[in-house]
C-alpha cells in the first residue's frame, strides 16, 4: 500500500502558514483551531475585536496563533497586516477570507400569516439606510477582494518555499455561504447577493491568478451556530434543542465544528491540492430544501 494514500499523509497541514480573517469567533475560530491541531506552523487571526482575538490565540496555542487586530474594509489596515506577516514569516500558504456580517432583512410574515402589504414591505425596507446595505458588501465582497490583493505576493512566495510539497500550490479560500445560491423570501438581499458575488469573484480569481500559481476556492456553509447566525438559529430552534426539522435541514441538525474541520482539512491539505475554482457546500442538505440557483 502506498503511504501517500493514508489519511495521515493526505489530510495533514503540517507546516502551513495561514491567515484567517474573522478568525476570533464562529467558523473562523473553528478553522484556526483545526489548522493548528493538524500541524500548522503559524496562523494569523484577524478581526476588529482585539480582546476576542487574544483570547482565541491563548485558548488554541499562543505560540502558533497570532492575534492581529484589523479591519478588512480598510485597505490600509489589511496592507499593514500583510506587512507585519511579511516581516515576521515572509510568506503564507493559505489565506482564508472568512470575515463577514449579516445584512438588513426585509419584512417577513410569521408562519401561516398573510404577507405584508406592498406599502408595509416597502416602508420597512426603505427604513434601512443605504449605507447599511452597502456595508454588507464592503465586508463580505470588497473585503475579500482587497484582502486577497494584499496577500498575493506572500502567497506567491509561499509557492517558492514549497514547504507544503512540490505539487501543492498556494490558495485563497473564501467563506461564502449557501445564501449565495438561495432565493429564500425574507432572507437578506444584501447578505445573499454579497455571497453570490464572492462565490463568483473566487471563480474569476481562480482563472485570473493562473499565471501567479495561486488557487482560489470557496467554502459555502449552511447553518452553523455563531453570532452572525444567532437570529436564524433562534428562529429555527427557539427551544435550543440542537435539532432542526428535516424539512429545514435534511441532516436534522445545525452544522458543528467537525463539519467545518473536515471540509477545511480537505481543502487545505494534499487531499485538496487539485481543487481550483471549486465550491464546497457543507450544509447537511439545506440547499435541497430551498428555492435556489445551485
Ligand atoms: N454561521 C453560519 O451559519 C454561516 C453560514 C454561511 C456562511 N457563514 C459565513 O461564515 C463567516 C464567518 O461568520 P460566523 O458565522 O462565524 O459569524 P461570526 O462569529 O460573527 O464571525 C464573523 C467574524 O468576522 C469578523 N469581522 C466582521 N467584520 C469585520 C471587519 N470589518 N474586519 C475584520 N473582521 C471582521 C468578526 O470579528 P470582529 O467583529 O471582531 O471584526 C468575526 O470574527 C462569514 O463570512 C459568514 O457569512 C456563516
Automatic annotation (TrEMBL):
Superkingdom per UniProt: Eukaryota
CDD domains for the chain: SDR_c
Keywords tagged on the record: Membrane, NADP, Oxidoreductase, Transmembrane, Transmembrane helix
TM segment ranges: 25-45
Molecular function terms from GO: oxidoreductase activity
Pfam families in UniProt: adh_short_C2
InterPro entries: NAD(P)-bd_dom_sf (IPR036291), Sc_DH/Rdtase_CS (IPR020904), SDR_fam (IPR002347), Sec_Metab_Biosynth_SDR (IPR052178)
Annotated family: Belongs to the short-chain dehydrogenases/reductases (SDR) family.
Annotated PANTHER family: 7-ALPHA-HYDROXYSTEROID DEHYDROGENASE, SHORT CHAIN DEHYDROGENASE_REDUCTASE FAMILY (AFU_ORTHOLOGUE AFUA_5G12480)
Protein name: NAD(P)-binding protein
Amino acid at each position: 500500500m502506498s503511504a501517500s494514500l493514508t489519511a495521515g499523509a493526505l489530510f495533514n497541514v503540517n507546516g502551513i502558514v495561514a491567515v484567517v480573517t474573522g478568525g476570533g469567533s464562529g467558523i473562523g475560530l473553528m478553522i484556526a483551531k483545526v489548522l493548528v491541531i493538524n500541524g500548522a506552523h503559524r496562523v494569523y487571526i484577524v478581526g476588529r475585536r482585539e480582546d476576542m482575538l487574544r483570547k482565541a490565540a491563548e485558548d488554541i496555542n499562543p505560540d502558533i496563533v497570532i492575534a492581529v487586530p484589523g479591519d478588512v474594509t480598510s485597505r490600509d489596515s489589511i496592507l499593514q497586516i500583510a506587512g507585519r506577516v511579511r516581516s515576521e514569516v515572509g510568506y503564507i500558504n493559505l489565506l482564508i477570507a472568512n470575515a463577514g456580517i449579516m445584512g438588513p432583512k426585509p419584512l417577513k410574515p410569521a408562519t401561516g400569516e398573510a404577507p405584508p402589504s406592498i406599502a408595509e414591505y416597502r416602508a420597512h425596507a426603505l427604513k434601512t439606510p443605504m449605507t447599511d446595505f452597502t456595508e454588507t458588501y464592503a465586508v463580505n465582497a470588497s473585503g475579500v477582494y482587497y484582502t486577497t490583493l494584499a496577500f498575493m505576493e506572500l502567497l506567491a512566495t509561499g509557492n517558492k518555499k514549497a514547504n507544503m510539497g512540490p505539487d501543492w500550490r498556494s490558495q485563497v479560500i473564501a467563506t461564502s455561504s449557501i445564501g449565495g445560491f438561495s432565493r429564500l423570501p425574507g432572507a437578506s438581499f444584501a447578505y445573499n447577493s454579497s455571497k453570490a458575488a464572492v462565490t463568483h469573484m473566487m471563480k474569476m480569481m481562480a482563472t485570473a491568478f493562473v499565471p501567479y500559481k495561486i488557487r482560489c476556492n470557496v467554502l459555502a456553509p449552511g447553518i452553523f451556530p455563531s453570532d452572525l447566525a444567532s437570529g436564524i438559529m433562534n428562529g429555527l430552534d427557539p427551544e435550543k434543542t440542537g435539532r432542526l426539522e428535516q424539512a429545514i435541514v435534511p441532516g436534522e441538525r445545525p452544522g458543528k465544528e467537525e463539519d467545518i474541520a473536515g471540509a477545511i482539512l480537505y481543502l487545505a491539505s494534499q487531499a485538496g491540492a487539485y481543487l481550483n475554482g471549486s465550491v464546497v457546500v457543507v450544509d447537511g442538505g439545506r440547499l435541497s430544501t430551498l428555492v435556489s440557483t445551485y
